[in-house]
Amino acid sequence: MPCASGVLNGLRVIDLSTIVFGPYCTQMLADMGADVIKVESTDGDFFRQSGRPKQSEDMGPIHMTLNRGKRSIVIDLKSDEGKQTLMDLIRSADVFIHNIRGASIQRLGFDYESVALYAPDVIYVHCVGYGSGGPYSDYPAYDDTIQAASGFIDLVASTSRTYEPKFVPTIVADKVSGLYATQAVLAAQIHKHQTGEGQFVEVPMFESFVHFLLEEHLFERTYEPPGGQIGYRRIVDKDRKPFATADGFITILPYTDKNWHDLFDLLECPEVLSTVPVEGSLLRVQHVGRFYEAIRERTPSRTTEEWMRALTKINVPAMPVRKIEHILDDPHLTAGGFFKVVEHPTEGSYIQMQPPVRFGAAGSPEVGHAPRLGQHTQEVLEELSSLATSVDVEAVRG
């Protein structure tokens, strides 16, 4: 049964999306209490088989995290019966979200114009690779292609001494776009609450990721005519990297004028600040490479823990560089209960991340488990039948 608590309690979402972009959006909606019904083919979402499962072959590790709290229903959209079931589901819902390309969704009969005839008040969210109207609009899109097309890979490569384009090791474009989609759903829901109107919403990965990337990196190219370079100078500086310590690496980020003065007093080289101006962020950015060099020369003299104690004492922002496997034992995340070992009905014990956002008024719903393929088909169909019967009764009474 759907969640009965959370700030989105009562919001019903039909999720026909696959891979990461759409499912990441609907995972967040489910975390906030929405009833998310994941519509799948008999083969299931691709990420059900990504990674080695613990028990069931359709319950891979990425599916376990990406589709938690949803209900799964299997529908054959090649059949008339399956198409009718999906349309009935959409009519029962507030939101319909998918990532099927335009021509394909139109052939299925679930483009916005067709859906709006039967469900005019639905919020119809189309997750696409590239926005409509441009020459890329029919291109297939995945995280790697968006990292490449957006300039993101070039930006990362340009910070190295030798230019070597590489993907960053996370599905960053998909997840960023999923955040934009979540924002769009909630904004459209507010509009619907105020006006009663449903609407078509297009969320393109390419445009979303470029927007995300250029917030700071448009930089001096913001002005017309251009006032300078593209790329926020402090971020793209080749010396911007963690500093080696006696036993590892540490990130140190002095931010204010006082931070810089206190840091160089600690490093016992205040003369650096007398030769290179530090007051004011513009001057710091222009000379940041020299500052980084001075820090790098001195950090190997102490251990990471010794630096952390000293830097924390003078309130200079710093954190050690931790290996990713150690994050599971991070003392802050452990104290806050971010990771919980819970019991899945069929897959046994597993680590479940808790939603990072907390709500004081409505409270946070208990995080649900990822569903088996088609686990809720019968349950959802019975709900649809009950809903149809209720509507018929109301019509007779009317």
Structural write-up:
This protein has 398 residues and is of the alpha/beta class. It has 2 domains: 12-213 and 331-397, Rossmann fold; 243-319, formyl-coa transferase, domain 3, CATH 3.30.1540.10. Helices cover 42% and strands 13% of the residues. The chain has helices at 21-31, 61-66, 80-91, 102-108, 112-118, 143-149, 152-157, 172-195, 205-217, 233-236, 257-266, 271-275, 281-298, 304-313, 331-335, 377-397; strands spanning 12-15, 35-40, 71-74, 95-98, 123-128, 199-204, 243-244, 249-252, 318-320, 339-344, 348-353. A 6-stranded parallel β-sheet has the order 3-2-1-4-5-6, sandwiched between helices. It has a 3-stranded antiparallel β-sheet with strand order 7-8-9, with helices on one face. Helix 8 packs across helix 9. The longest helix has 24 residues, at 172-195. It is globular, with a radius of gyration of 26 Å.
Total beta-strand segments: 11
Q: What average pLDDT do the residues reach?
A: 92
How far is the N terminus from the C terminus? Answer: 30 Å
Number of domains as seen in the coordinates = 2
* Pattern of helices and strands: EHEHEHEHHEHHHEHHEEHHHHEHEEH
| Annotation field: number of helices | 16
CATH class of the largest domain: Alpha Beta
> Percent of residues in helical segments?
40-55%
In the CATH hierarchy, the architecture of the largest domain is 3-Layer(aba) Sandwich
Global outline: globular
Biggest sheet descriptor: 6 strands, parallel
Q: Beta-strand level of the residues, as a percent range?
A: 5-15%
Q: Helix- and strand-based class?
A: alpha/beta
For CATH, the homologous superfamily of the largest domain is named as: Crotonobetainyl-coa:carnitine coa-transferase, domain 1
CATH topology of the largest domain: Rossmann fold
Uncertain stretches of 5 or more adjacent residues: 391-398
